[in-house]
From TrEMBL, chain A:
Keywords: Phosphate transport, Signal, Transport. This is Phosphate-binding protein. CDD domains: PBP2_PstS. InterPro entries: ABC_phos-bd_PstS, PBP_domain, Phosphate-bind_PstS. Residues 22-311 form the PBP domain. GO terms for cellular component: ATP-binding cassette (ABC) transporter complex. GO terms for molecular function: phosphate ion binding. Pfam families: PBP_like_2. Belongs to the PstS family. It comes from the Bacteria. Residues 1-21 form the signal peptide. It comes from candidate division WOR-1 bacterium RIFOXYC12_FULL_54_18. GO terms for biological process: phosphate ion transmembrane transport.
Length: 343, 300
């Protein structure tokens, strides 16, 4: 009897030690956290490799990755050259999924609001202060706009969502680029800060006349009214998974991004992409890994990345992320294959 | 002293010393990490209103202002309310119902601050913008404090939510203090022909005063450091504005908001310097409280 028990205990220990043989630790952006958790669970069931990911924010993710506390990092904002050299220089950005930033508003009785980039920029700069401003009215014929003040709602916490949104504004508005700039946290000319998507949505819901930006997944799951934005083809497009993928396809057709990809650099800015159905405020999220990884851990991480970019992509849409278009994931796969695991 | 006594003394001393050591090490570590910001900005940091993470230009004034003013608003609301409640329960309406009221006030302390924050953003903030601010603006609109456009998330709303959160601290502690006053004092005053108010003023409030100040200061301590609920309703706007209706920011809120995403070394150091300032403010407030309590007990 005792022998039997002992045998069971020993075999349990052996099984668990085999399962724990390789475990990878990562930390960073909170935006992709739900899909990484799903990936990690499925991947562990399939291969026995435990991947842990903590959503501590992109900044924290970059800090821990730089300090080599984690095996990989996660970020919604690409690392700058300076940060990359601080991390040792051998950093690869592996794009995993895409997200879009929706512009939402609170105007009772008004639906189907349309805006163009110039007007959006002037509103966020605080130059357009009222909803019945001629610039907004001209874009929305047939909608009876109230004479209410516009209350801007923005993120108060540093965020990749803010990075994508301000990158877009800086691209379409020279005034924004020179006065505010693009980053995870900026000096907002006007408005109220909300903590997280829920905080911004709370400010929008609680203030008639509010206008703010949230992640597309949050806007969809909470059924928020969203603005149709005029894209480069002159069409007004609503944010959706389809229009996000369309934006990536459009962006990849540009020769500038093609050159960047050919150089193995996937820190792509997908905002304001060309294409009939492209939604203009779209961005990537990245896993940060080193270009040479040692032995067992390196091989496991490489496997994980390959799986995430192939089989893993099919879980994206159900969690309201846009999968990478095939034309991009093929090229990312080449980059992953180039990771040196023989040191 | 026997062998056992020496051992005992040593043990107890180690325990006692560990707490001041903890505080000292906290200050040392904060200083160490904040040092790049301290030498970069110097004293001007405290008086600057700049906050631009892209340009790496920072100032602490809006956060210090928001922290102090929101806590002051909280005290202005919670002290009369909490003290009134405590006096009512312990002096006037001593019954089962009074006990239930006390219990319910204490239950307020058990609600997590994030729940206060959610309630604040979805209920209190819209209510503040739609009713409280217009009424205050109508009555006191001649003061700059109550001018300007109304806004749900604002300095005033932050102060109100803090008031609700420190109410149980002030009420429960004041009640304990009042009940600790010996009954013989009340009976003596009554026997001398004092009215109920006179009895309370002379025989109860006098002896209890220092304890009540202590209760208020503990409440203030909670208000100064409260993070989650405040950041959800204060508006998170780093500007000093004369109007209480305008969005503002607090020290604890900006640290919570920006710490995870602070990337540059200076940005991180600045946030830690703000933590240091918050620590200094709380220690100063506590010191002031000690002084007040000490003064009132000396006078007797």
């Amino acid at each position: 009897m005792i022998n039997k028990t002992l045998a069971v205990v020993i075999s349990l220990v052996l099984i668990s030690s085999a399962a724990l043989a390789v475990s990878l630790n990562g930390a960073g952006a909170t935006f992709p956290y739900p899909i990484y958790v799903k990936w990690n669970k499925i991947f562990a069931d399939k291969t026995g490799t435990q991947v842990n990911y903590q959503g501590i924010g992109s900044g924290g993710g970059i800090r821990q990755f730089t300090a080599k506390i984690t095996d990989f990092g996660g970020s919604d904002a690409p690392m700058t050259e300076k940060q990359m050299s601080a991390a040792g220089g051998d950093v690869l950005h592996i794009p995993t999924v895409m997200g879009a930033v929706a512009v939402s508003y609170n105007l009772p009785g008004v639906s189907g609001l349309k805006l163009d980039p110039e007007t959006l920029g002037r509103i966020f700069l605080g130059r357009i202060k009222k909803w019945d401003d001629p610039a907004i009215a001209a874009l929305n014929p047939g909608i009876d706009l109230p004479g209410k003040n516009i209350t801007i709602a923005h993120r108060s916490d540093g965020s990749g969502t803010t990075h994508i949104f301000t990158s877009y504004l800086a691209k379409v508005s020279t005034a924004w680029a020179s006065q505010v700039g693009a980053g995870s946290a900026v000096s907002w000319p006007t408005g109220i800060g909300g903590k997280g998507n829920a905080g911004v949505a709370g400010v929008i819901k609680g203030n008639e006349g509010a206008l703010g930006y949230v992640e597309l997944s949050y806007a969809i799951s909470n059924d928020l009214p969203v603005v149709s934005l005029k894209n480069r083809s002159g069409r007004f497009v609503k944010p959706s998974i389809e229009s996000t993928t369309a934006a990536a396809d459009g962006a990849l057709s540009s020769s500038k991004l093609a050159k960047q990809i050919a150089a193995g650099d996937f820190r792509l800015d997908l905002t304001n992409a060309p294409g009939q159905n492209a939604y203009p405020i779209v961005g990537l999220t990245w896993l940060l890994v080193r270009s040479s990884l040692d032995g067992e851990k390196g091989a496991a991480l490489k496997n994980y990345l390959k799986w995430a970019l192939s089989d893993g992509q099919k879980y994206a849409a159900s969690l309201l992320y846009a999968p990478l278009p095939d034309s991009m994931s093929d090229k990312v796969m080449k980059l992953i294959n180039s990771i040196d695991t023989n040191i | 002293m026997g062998q056992g006594d020496i051992w005992f003394k040593g043990f107890i001393f180690a325990f006692a010393a560990s707490i001041p050591l903890l505080l000292v090490s906290l200050v040392v570590v904060l200083f160490f990490w904040a040092w790049p910001a301290i030498i970069h900005f110097g004293w001007s940091f405290i008086f600057s209103s700049a906050w631009d993470p892209l340009a790496d230009n920072y100032g602490a004034l809006p956060f210090i202002y928001g922290t102090l003013v929101s806590s002051l608003i909280a005290l202005l609301i919670a002290v009369p309310l909490g003290l009134g409640c405590a006096i009512f329960i312990s002096e006037i309406y001593k019954s089962k119902t009074g006990e239930y009221i006390a219990l319910m006030v204490e239950l307020l302390a058990a609600i997590p601050s994030v729940v206060y924050g959610l309630w604040g953003i979805f209920v209190l903030a819209p209510f503040s913008a739609a009713y409280i601010q217009p009424v205050l603006g109508g009555m006191f609109g001649f003061l700059p404090l109550f001018q300007g456009p109304t806004s749900g998330p604002s300095l005033l709303t932050g102060g109100i939510i803090l008031a609700i959160m420190i109410l149980p601290t002030i009420t429960a502690l004041s009640r304990e203090v009042l009940q600790a006053v010996p009954y013989s004092l009340r009976e003596s005053a009554m026997a001398l022909g004092a009215t109920r108010w006179e009895t309370f003023k002379v025989a109860v409030f006098g002896p209890a005063r220092s304890g009540i100040i202590g209760a208020i200061i503990l409440g203030l301590g909670r208000a100064l450091g409260e993070t989650m609920a405040v950041t959800m309703v204060i508006g998170n706007r780093p500007r000093v504005s004369a109007s209480l209706f305008a969005p503002a920011y607090s020290l604890a809120a900006v640290i919570a908001n920006e710490f995870a995403e602070a990337v540059t070394e200076l940005n991180l150091a600045v946030l830690i310097e703000l933590a240091l300032i918050l620590l200094v403010i709380t220690i100063a407030v506590n010191g002031l409280a000690r002084y007040l309590v000490w003064q009132t007990t000396l006078k007797k």
